[in-house]
Design a protein that fits this description.
Blueprint (H helix, E strand, L loop, with lengths): L1 H23 L1 H8 L12 E6 L5 E9 L2 E9 L3 H14 L4 H4 L4 H8 L8 H21 L2 H8 L3
Helix pairs in contact: 1-2, 2-3, 3-5, 3-6, 5-6
Length: 155
């Protein structure tokens, strides 16, 4: 009986993996299996926490050195798609200057992933927005008043 149950579970797992791979693509599937850049960071230079319309919350942590992102990480209480998008947002941020970080948006995350199912695309936009808020936090802490005024729409 034990072998039959094990075989059933293994077959079911493979079916789930195959369906996930087909729906989300190989890149997102592999990142889901082997998550990177997940975790909090002590004393980040830039930090943001954003809750999306879907109810998922994402946090992004940035550490800068010589005005480039040296380290980045994320946390989310959301679904696998949110985790994959947060992971790619953190990865895409590493090595970038603030001016280069501005270019990382939900659209660029979706492009990097090769797309997501339509009902999951909002996860990329949540990751992009959270990254932009973390960048804004860094620039404000750095004392860039012009940045803060531009981000607030008051300039």
């Amino acid at each position: 009986m034990g072998n039959e149950l094990d075989d059933f579970v293994n077959e079911l797992q493979e079916q789930i993996y195959e369906e996930t791979r087909n729906a989300y693509g190989e890149l997102a599937f592999e990142r889901w299996l082997h998550m990177r850049f997940m975790g909090s960071m002590e004393n980040p230079d830039g930090y943001a926490r954003v809750t999306g319309k879907c109810g998922d919350t994402m946090e992004i942590f940035l550490r800068f050195e010589d005005d480039r992102v040296k380290d980045a990480s994320f946390l989310t209480d959301g679904c696998g798609s949110s985790a994959v998008c947060g992971s790619f947002a953190a990865e895409m941020a590493i090595g970038k200057t603030p001016d280069e970080l501005i270019e990382i948006t939900g659209d660029t995350i979706l492009e990097k992933l090769g797309g997501l199912p339509k009902e999951e695309e909002h996860c990329a936009f949540l990751a992009g927005e959270t990254l932009q808020e973390a960048l804004s936090d860094y620039m404000i802490k750095k004392g860039n008043r012009k940045w803060s005024m531009t981000c607030d729409g008051k300039e």
